[in-house]
Amino acid sequence: MAQLRIPGPTPCPPEVLEAMSRQMIDHRGPEFVKIMQRVTDKLKQAFITKNDLLVLTGSGTGGLEPQL
After folding, report:
1. pLDDT tens digits for range 27-53
2. What is the DSSP code string of 7-21?
3. CA–CA distance from 38 to each of 22, 31, 33, 61 (Å)?
């Protein structure tokens, strides 16, 4: 007999549910640019660098896919 082994059910914090109920933002709009800048700045602090930092958007394995 095959078994499907997935985690769950997992409780979801109220603040996450509230955030998910908001309207989606345009990934090419000014609000997204501000969010990405804030995330990039914090990642630079976490990695202790002032160099350029590239944030890849995609699936979890997207950064591992070969670029042809």
Report:
1. 899 999 999 999 999 999 999 999 999
2. -------HHHHHHHT
3. 20, 11, 9, 24
